[in-house]
Amino acid sequence: MKASSKALELIKQFEGLCLKAYLCPGGVWTIGYGHTSGVKSGMVITEAQAEEFLLSDIAVFEKTVNDQNLDLTQNMFDALVSFTFNVGVGNFKRSTLLCKIKVNPWDNSIMDEFLRWVYSKGRVLPGLQRRRLAEMKLYFSND
User: Fold this and answer.
1) pTM
2) For residues 112 and 94, what is the distance between their CA atoms, to the nearest angstrom?
3) Residue 120's domain is classified under what CATH number?
């Protein structure tokens, strides 16, 4: 599967666009739409470069979700690409969220698993709460 425009919009909405490198709440240098690979203090990019980084980054997370051989709808896939983009490949692969999806992708307790991922350095971040709710809503939507 490939991420649809819904996944791109969700990621862009919550990552925001920043053309100058900044330290995210997790203490990682970030630029564009949440791009972190090779980012250093003082780095500046164009909006076109931000788009390129985003599409390149998304391909990694699409592959990660696809490699799990899950039986997903497009909305489920899009939500998981956004989730994995945010929490990282390792965290996604080790998550109880993924374990539950492997057993039954329609299990309602998956909602609770999304909501466990709202912390950074032990603190609840309202932005992460909003993102997890949006991902959860997309995951379980039928449109």
Assistant:
1) 0.92
2) 16
3) 1.10.530.40
Confidence category of residue 26, pLDDT binned at 50, 70, 90: confident
The residues assigned a catalytic role are 15, 24
Eight-class DSSP state of 21: E
The string of pLDDT tens digits covering residues 110-125 is 999 999 999 988 899 9
pLDDT tens, residue by residue, 72-112: 999 999 999 999 999 999 999 999 999 999 999 999 999 99
The encoded tokens of residue 14 equal 């919550």
Q: Contact, 79 vs 6, CB < 8 A?
A: no
Q: Which domain holds residue 92?
A: 5-139
Count up the domains in the chain and report the number: 1
Instruction: Give every CB contact of residue 85 below 8 A, 6+ residues apart in sequence.
Output: 11, 15, 34, 57, 58, 61
- Return the number of other C-beta atoms located less than 10 Å from residue 122's C-beta: 5
**Alpha-carbon radius of gyration of the chain:** 15
Spatial contact of 113 and 95, defined as CB atoms under 8 Å apart: yes
User: Contact, 79 vs 3, CB < 8 A?
Assistant: no
State how far the Cα of 65 lies from the Cα of 67, in Å rounded to an integer.
Answer: 5
